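Troubleshooting entry. The earlier prediction with adenosine-5'-triphosphate gave an output that would not parse, so I re-checked the input for stray whitespace and re-submitted. Clean input:
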Amino acid sequence: MKNYGLNELREMYLKFFESKNHLRLKSFALVPENDKSLLLINAGMAPLKPYFTGQEVPPSKRITTCQKCIRTGDIENVGKTARHGTFFEMLGNFSFGDYFKKEAIAWSWEFVTEVLEIPVEKLYISVYEEDEEAAEIWHKEIGLSKEKIFYLGKEDNFWEVGTVGPCGPCSEIYYDRGESFGCGSDDCKLGCDCDRYLEFWNLVFTQFDKNEDGSYTPLPNPNIDTGMGLERIAAIMQDVHTLFDVDTIRAIRDHVCELSGKKYGADAKADVSIRVITDHIRSVVFMASDGVRASNEGRGYVMRRLLRRAVRHGKILGIEGLFLEPLIRTVVDNSKHEYTELEEKYDYIIKSLTVEEQNFNQTIEQGLTILEGYIDELTKSGKKVLDGDACFKLYDTFGFPIDLTLEILEEKGLGIDEEGFKQEMEKQRERARNAQAETSYMGAEETIFNKLDTEVSTQFVGYTPKEVTSNIVFITTNDNIVDEVTSGETVFIITAETPFYAEGGGQAGDFGTIKTQTGEAKITNTTKVAGAKIAHHAEIVEGTISVGQQATLIVDNVLRLDTARNHSATHILQKALRDVVGNHIEQAGSNVTKDRLRFDYTHFEALTQSQIEQVETLVNEKILEGLDINIVETSIDEAKKMGAMALFGEKYSDVVRVVDMGGYSIELCGGTHLSNTAQIGTFKIVSETGVASGVRRIEAVTGRQAIEYYRLVEKTLDEVATAIKAKKSDVAKRVETLSVDYKKLQKENESLKTQIANQKASDVLSDVVDVADIKVLAKQFDGMDTNGLKQMGDTLKDQLGDGVVFLASHVDGKVSLVCMATKAANDKGVHCGQVISASAKTVDGGGGGRPNMAQAGGKNPANINKALEVALSTIKDQLTK
Ligand code: ATP
Ligand code: MG
C-alpha cells in the first residue's frame, strides 16, 4: 500500500466524490449554528441536519466535506486507545434524497480498493442484522464473500438520535490489522473489543422516520450520510499503530517530546501524557480558531478542561513554565492549508490560550496554598483522609485537578475520601443535566415559519435603497398562517422579494412601509426566519392586506442611513483597535442599530484612557479622510487575497461580499454601508467595559446620535455652569475651588460646633444649685436625641466635679430624658433610675436605670418643665433624707 500523508488523503477523498458529482463544501465551524442539541460539532452530518430534515434546501443533492469534529465523550479513551482523539476530521459524502445504498456502497468500495488500493483480503464489512438489502449489495454487486460480511445488532449498526426523527441502519468498513493486534482469543472476530479490526468508515442509510410510538415510517426520499475518520484511514495507509503516529499528528507528538526531553516509547506512563497533550492541544487550537473562549460553562468549559488537562500533563512530564505557544505553531503549520482560519486567527489563538495557561498556573499555586491548609488541619486532628467535600471544592471552585490533590496527599502518607468526592461529582453532574434543556433532533426552535412551504424563499434586493414591488406570499401571526389581515393587527408579512434588510451579521433590521391597493402596514422590524425567508414585522395601520396581493415595499432611508453610519464605523473601529492595541483583537460580537454601535472584542484587560483616545482619534481621522467605501462581490479566495478579515467560524458562501474602506479596513460583510466614510460625520466612544473573561465591549455613537450626545453633554455643562454661576470655560476650575472651599468650610463648621457646645456647657454651669455639698443641674436642651444628651451629660459631669446632671430634650415631637450622677452623689443617696422614673411619668413616658445612669423617653413635650421640676425635687429629697 502507498504511504499517503493525511493532508493528501483528505484531498484524494474530496476529489473522488467531486468526480461523482458531489459539491465540495468547506468544513463547517466547530460551533454549531442554530442547534441547541449540540455543544460542538461531532460528525460530518451534524451541520447538515437542516438538509436532512428538509428544513432547508441544500445547495446540491450531493455534498462532500471534511468536517472538523470534537468528541469529548471520547476524552477518557484519548491516549489509551489507538483510535480515539477528542479532535478529529471526518470525511463524508452525503445524499439528500438522491442516490442511496447501492451507490453509497459501490463508491466507498471503489475509493477504498481502487483509489487507495487497500487489498480486499484486509477488508471486512458489518451490516445491521435486519438489513438484508445491504448484505445483498455487498455480496452480489460488490462480489464480497459471505464470510466477510458480519451481521451486528442495533447497538452497533443502527443509527438514531433521540426519541423521534430520521434514523436508519448502517454498514461499516473495517481494516484487519493482523493477528498481532488481536486479543488472541479463539472467537476473536469482527466486533471484538480489541485493536485487530479497526472500524474506519461508517455508511448510514437514513431511510426511516422514527415516530413517537417507537414505530418506523420509511422516508420517501432516503438519505445517505457517511463518515470516515481521516486520522484512522491515514494510520492504515501509513501502516502505523495509532493516530498519534500519523504524519501531521506525529509532528506535534515529537514536539511535545522535544519540549519535555522525553523519548516516546520509553515509559508507558509518560507516553500517555505525551499523547494527551498532543491530542488536547489540537482540540483547543481548533476550538480557539472558531472563536471558542475558555469559560466555566458550555463549550467554553470543554475548552478549559482540555487545556488544563494538557497543561497538567505537561507538569507530569516535568515541563517548566509556559509551553503551549510553540506547540500551537506546530498544530497550525500542519493544518493551515485546509483550515486557513488557523493562520488568520493566529494572534488571537496564541494570546487567548496562553492567557488561559497562565491563569491555570496561578490557579495551581492558589490551590496548593489551600491544600497546604487542609493538610495542616488533617495533621493536627490526626485524620488520614481529606473529606470529599474539600476535595470537590478544590476541584470545582478552585479548578485544582483531583489527581494533583491525590498525588500531593499521598506524598504525605494521606489520602482522599474517594467515595465522598464521587458523590459530590455526581451531584454536580445532576445539576448540569438538569440545566441542559431537552431539545428536538434539530436543536432549533420550532416556529410557525417551519410550517411554510420550504420551496418558497425571499430574495433580498435592497443594498441600493429603492422601492420594490413584489407579491405577498405568506402572512402569519405568531401561531397561525392567515390569508388576510386588517387594520390594528400585528403580523408577519413575507414577500418574494424585499428591499428590507433582515436583522443579521450584527445589524438590526430595516423599518419602513408596505402598501397594497387595499391597505398599508408599518414595518417595525425585519428578520430572517426558517426556510430562507424574510419576515417583515408589520402593524397594519390602514385597510386590509391579503396574500397574493402586489405590494410596494418602501424602506425608511433616514433610519437605514443612521444604521449604516454605525455599521461602517464599526469596521473602522475594529481595524483601529488592531492598530492601537494589537492583532489579537477579534470580533466577538457586534450589534449595530440606528441609535448606536456595540462592538465586543477579544482582549484581556481594560483599555487605558489613552488607548481609548487613540482609537477614537484614529477612527475620526479615517472619517475626515473621506475614504470611498467600495463593495465588491467575489470568491472567498479572491477576498482573502485582498486581505479581507473574516469572522470566527462564519459560513461563507461561494460568492462573498467584500467591504473595503479605502483600503484601510477590508472585511467580509453582508450589511448595508455608506459610500464614503465622511458620511459617518463623527465617532464618539461612550463606554468601554468588560462582558466576559477575555471579552471587552465598546459602545459608540456616530452622526446624528453623536451630535445628540455632545448636545446632552453641553446641556449638562450649561446647567452646572448656571448652578455655580461660572462661565462654561471656567467650570472645571470653579468646581475645584468650590470643592476645596467646601472642605475648608466643613472643617471650620466642625470646630465651631465643638466650641459652641463647650460654650453652652460653661453657660449652664451658672444654673447649678448646691444641695448638701453636691452640685445639681437640671436643664433642657432641645433638638438633641438621647445619645446627644448623654454626651452632653458626660461633658457637664466632668465640669461639675461631684454632682448630678439631669437633662431633657424636646426632639421630633418626643421627649428624651437622661440622668447621670458621680460616685460621691450616689454615696450621698442619689439614684438616677428613681429620678428618671419619677420625672418620666410627667411627660407620659417610662424608663429607668442604674444609680449612676438612667434614661427615658416621653410623649408629652408640653410637660418638660414639670419633668425638670420633679427631677430636681426628687434629687433634693434623696440628698436630704
Ligand atoms: P468508535 O466505535 O471507534 O468510537 P464510532 O462508532 O463512535 O467509532 P462513528 O460515530 O460511526 O464512530 O463515526 C464515523 C467515523 O469517524 C468512524 O468510523 C471513525 O473512523 C471516525 N471516528 C469516530 N470517533 C473518532 C474519534 N474519537 N477519533 C478519531 N476518529 C473517530
Ligand atoms: Mg465512538
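This one parsed fine. The first helix runs from residue 6 to 19.
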